[in-house]
Amino acid sequence: MPHCILEYSSNIPLPPEMKGVFRSLHQALVETGLFKLNDIKSRAIRRDDFLIGDGDSNRTFVALEIRIFAGRDAATRKVIAQKAMEILQEAFAPAVEETPCSLSVQVTEMDREVYTRAKSG
Fold first, then answer.
1. CB within 8 A of 99, min separation 6: which ones?
2. Fewer CB within 10 Å, N or C, the chain?
3. Which of 43, 42, 44, 63 is nearest to 52 (CA)?
4. CATH number assigned to the domain comprising residue 100
5. Considering the domain boundaries, does residue 119 fall inside one?
6. Is 95 inside a domain boundary?
7. Helices 74-91 and 18-31, packing angle to 10 deg
8. In this structure, are residues 84 and 68 in contact, taking their beta carbons and an 8 Å threshold?
């Protein structure tokens, strides 16, 4: 934990190399002192089917959801969101400069009591 799910529109100009974005994100999360590097999982999903506002095909989006176990206060979640936003702003700077682009970060709490996983190795 945490899980980082990055969704982005397929019309993003010059999308960054996602592993690099994730490395930066993982480092920032570790630097909070709240998470261990090997517990962080990230994935990107390119969205080909989407509609933003009035449907203008120049509009783009990047939406990052960071799922963490419940129990962190709002101030802590805000710090996580701000650090992640800084990474997105740098990584997706061409999209922000060239298109009407919406960047968003949401830190979502997960209920530890109902979260289940299996792990090998």
1. 11, 12, 13, 58, 59, 60
2. C
3. 63
4. 3.30.429.10
5. no
6. yes
7. 150
8. no
Return d(Cα 115, Cα 108) in angstroms, integer.
Answer: 14
Q: Check whether the bond before 2 is cis (ω within 30° of 0).
A: yes
- Cα separation, 114 vs 25, whole angstroms: 26
pLDDT tens by residue, the chain, 121 residues = 899 999 999 999 999 999 999 999 999 999 999 999 999 999 999 999 999 999 999 999 999 999 999 999 999 999 999 999 999 999 999 999 999 999 999 999 999 888 888 887 7
Query: Would residue 83 count as lying in a domain?
Result: yes
Tally of domains within the chain: 1
DSSP letter assigned to residue 13: S
Q: What does the alpha-carbon distance between residue 36 and residue 62 come to, in Å, rounded to a whole number?
A: 25
Q: What is the pTM of this model?
A: 0.93
Domain of residue 98: give its range: 3-110
